[in-house]
Write a structure and sequence with these properties.
8-stranded mixed sheet; globular; 377 residues; Rossmann fold; 2 domains; alpha/beta; 14% strand; 13 helices
Length: 377
Amino acid sequence: MIVLILLIVLLLASLLTVFKAPTYHLWLLAIAVSEFPLIFIGITGVLLIAIVWVEKYRLTSAIIGVLALLLFSSPIIRGYIVASTVKQEFAAVFGPGSTIVNGDNNQQPFSFFNLFKTSNTKATDYKTLTYGNDTEQTLDFYPARFAGRKPCVVVVHGGSWSSGDSNQLPELNSYLANAGYNVVSINYHLAPKYQAPVAVNDVVEAFNYLRKNAENLNIDTNNFVLLGRSAGAQIALLSAYKYPQKGLKGVVDFYGPADMVWGYSMPASKLVMDSRAVMERYLGGTYKGVPDNYFASSPIEFVNKQTVPTLIIHGDNDVLVSPIHSCKLDAKLTKTGVKHYYLDLPWATHGFDYNINGPGGQLSTYVVERFINIVCR
């Protein structure tokens, strides 16, 4: 009976690989089941083997266990499906040589064996520097592994504009530094004490600091890329589209809210996050009270023919920031004729890149590295 109960619990958990999480804590579980699938496959496999010694409900337990096993395996299967076309799709946008990095075009976007790794890069030591006039304005600088002036990736963290810091998801920073890019992960003024556009102004100040200190930091000021996650993606996109910096070659959008007006009209479930309250703290009021703030903070409104190339990455099971934001941005960039690529991950939820070696983590890292490489070429 205990085995049957455990298998039922696992089956319910496995449903998060295909259905959106209805509550905050189940969203956290959804990240685990979709991006650490081998753990759950292993547990389910052990319980299926244990059925041999169970007399009651053996067939029922077996059916439930096999269903759970298939669902836990689905992110891996779908990862391979996405990987089978990502090279060709990316090359169709950025050219036939865009998938070549350091002379290698054989790296696969997704590998089953990488799922067993705890890390795929050596952590890079960073130093914390102050780019502004107060304690909030600091950045972590990850120097490129190779000598000489190198491009610089400026990372803007997520956290609903009111939390998070520059240490968020640092493994990609080390990965890119080892690949030969300087990486700067910035801290910015947080809501509700500071409201829009203060955080965007912080990005401008960070760029000014990096240009001023480019010689000491070995930064190629002709090759900057902005990268943001969630709320940080909104800041990065708005900075890139509304206040484009000299030398900025592209922007990477990890599951960011691109249309703040639409986002307020279609909020997330309050059982997951009160997204309207989050936006009100950041923008200084409701949409009815300060509509201009919502418009002025919507990156999609500032797309034009001079907009820098954009990489969009989003999961269809995202319950915090609807993937419709990315669909709308994709459509606007297409209409305007801006070079861009949209990596759509059918199984993934918000924060899927927590595990850089998970199905979503591998695929996103693959396209991020190639995007930076081609726009900074």
